[in-house]
Design a protein that fits this description.
Layout: H1 4-8, H2 21-40, E1 81-83, E2 89-91, E3 111-114, E4 117-118, E5 123-124, E6 129-132, E7 147-149, E8 168-174, E9 185-192, H3 193-206, E10 209-215, E11 220-222, E12 225-227, E13 229-236, E14 240-249, H4 250-259, H5 263-273, E15 278-286, E16 299-306, H6 314-332, E17 338-343, H7 351-358, H8 374-377, E18 386-388, H9 389-394, H10 401-404, E19 418-419, E20 424-425, E21 428-433, E22 437-443, H11 448-451, E23 467-473, E24 494-497
Parallel strand pairs: 8-9, 16-17
Antiparallel strand pairs: 1-2, 3-6, 4-5, 7-22, 8-23, 9-13, 10-13, 11-12, 14-15, 14-24, 15-16, 17-21, 18-21, 19-20, 22-23
Helix pairs in contact: 4-5, 6-7
């Protein structure tokens, strides 16, 4: 159930949801404190030039509600404006654990008021400490991330990669849009529908991209409207053409399993497994070029997905990843190279990651993590070998120490792709079939020092960082003919014919 007061106060959507009525009642004493402090923070108008002051949300970190009773409040007796004896006017811009200055703050001082608060009474229990900053300055421009060439002394696929640049392409995966590094294929996750229609679709269409979009299956109510997000895939139409598109709704793939459960487990099964996440899969074919005289062009299958986020449901993450792999198995059997891009919401060495990278179950779940017995019923063995692009880069020859320090030597993955004040770790990946594609380069990783206290920030628009890889086809041309036979994927996969 969703708290309507949170919606009215423009609070965190994730923090507004509760799993049941009793959960909501149990959390209410702490929960109502956030309502009170959020209500205190409103937009003001600067008296000098009538410039509209932006809304600043007055809750804590956007991704999670704080676990403690700590709340930062204003000492200004609930007034949004405070005038000092010297005539200075201070305007309240937020009540939170952290605050990142924006362009509206440039040239102005910031004042932090901090005190310990008795949450049960809403009163200060310590004197107010006040700190005033120097004027906010323009942030330095951050340099664009460079691509790093992979050096291979030997390639274990046993196949020689085609040297023609026409058979090399780049793919970028990101949980929200940033700068485009002349990308051939762009996979975005958590793209809000109105942002897609109003901004991304027309802008990228002008840049020569064809667009595909698949929304999640459930809308979320945000202030004044329902919104929905999804996965968006863009590709350069001068390099590729769409052959067929598949859409996978994970709640529909889970429904047969839920209906087969014992009657006493069905209600829990629906709540646990019927999540709104989706996958968008497209088979692309290289646009005809002079290199191919037999008329056969190589094809590539690109899967773009956003897996369920809650760490309380590892079996759901596992189920969704396995459902995706089951369908892609049929495509791989057609000798079509695979790319899997997305926010998997799974750490390195977790069961979803280990299954994709090694085809194994890393750890046997207990009853608490697998109350429905999902793992024992879904245990496919993929016939193709996948590898993470950045793990492959870590194993390449001549990787510089500067980049090696940004990666975990045990998992061979980046130390982080998601970086906030509450969480730092790797959740995003690009997987590829090693027998049909060779990694040529990747986008350099970032270090924490360059990102400050966390993301998003005025310089970086998402709490995720973008991943990118450039690949070359390694299949022999004789294999292209086998790619002509398109697989028929079972329900609940939905097929859209080529346009």
């Amino acid at each position: 159930m969703q708290c309507e007061e949170c919606v009215k106060l423009n609070l965190s959507v994730k923090g507004s949801y509760h799993c049941s009525n009793s959960c909501y009642v149990d959390a209410w004493e702490k929960h109502k404190v956030y309502h009170r402090y959020a209500a205190e923070t409103v937009s003001e108008t600067l008296s000098n030039n009538q410039q509209e002051v932006r809304n600043v949300k007055s809750y804590g970190p956007d991704k999670y509600w704080p676990e403690s009773d700590f709340v930062v409040g204003s000492s200004s007796d609930k007034n949004e404006k405070v005038m000092e004896p010297d005539g200075k006017i201070w305007i309240k811009v937020g009540s939170s654990k952290s605050y990142a200055p924006t362009e509206h703050d440039i040239g102005h001082h910031l004042r932090l008021e901090c005190a310990a608060v008795d949450c049960s009474m809403g009163t200060n229990i310590t004197p107010v400490n006040i700190t005033v900053t120097d004027p906010v300055i323009y942030p330095p421009a951050h340099p664009p991330r460079s691509t790093i060439k992979c050096v291979w002394k030997s390639w274990n696929s046993g196949l020689e990669a085609h040297s023609s640049s026409d058979l090399t392409f780049s793919v970028l995966s990101y949980n929200i849009l940033a700068g485009i590094y002349a990308i051939d294929i762009l996979c975005l996750q958590e793209v809000q529908r109105d942002h897609f229609e109003d901004l991304l679709k027309p802008a990228l269409a002008k840049c020569g991209y064809s667009v595909l979009y698949k929304t999640k299956t459930k809308e979320v109510y945000t202030p004044n409207q329902y919104t929905i997000d999804g996965c968006a895939t863009f590709y350069r139409h001068d390099k590729f053409k769409e052959i067929v598109k598949y859409e996978l709704e994970y709640d529909k793939s889970a429904l047969p399993f839920v209906e087969a459960l014992e009657p006493e487990l069905k209600k829990a099964g629906r709540f646990r497994l019927l999540k709104d996440n989706v996958a968008l899969v497209v088979i692309l074919e290289r646009v005809k070029n002079e290199e191919c005289f037999d008329g056969n062009q190589p094809r590539i299958c690109v899967a773009n997905t956003h897996i369920h986020a809650s760490e309380k449901f590892p079996d759901v993450k596992w189920f969704q990843v396995v459902s995706l792999i089951n369908g892609l198995e049929k495509i791989a059997n057609s000798k079509i190279p695979l790319l899997i891009c997305g926010d998997l919401n799974s750490l390195p060495l977790s069961n979803p990651h280990s299954f994709l990278s090694k085809g194994i179950l890393q750890s046997v779940p207990n009853k608490e993590n697998d109350p429905l017995g999902v793992y024992q019923y879904f245990w496919p063995c993929p016939t193709y070998t996948l590898k993470s692009a950045y793990a492959s880069f870590f194993q390449s020859d001549g990787i510089e120490e500067q980049q090696r320090r940004k990666m975990d030597s045990e998992t061979m993955e980046p130390i982080f792709t998601n970086f906030t004040s509450e969480f730092t770790g790797t959740l995003d990946y690009i997987f590829f079939t090693v027998n049909s594609l060779r990694l040529e380069s990747v986008l350099e990783l970032l270090d924490k020092e360059a990102l400050g206290s966390g993301l998003p920030s005025p310089q970086w628009s998402s709490d995720h960082i973008a991943l990118m890889g450039s690949f070359t086809f390694t299949l022999e041309r004789s294999s292209y003919q086998g790619q002509r036979l398109l697989p028929c994927l079972p329900s609940p996969w939905r097929t859209a014919a080529a346009r």
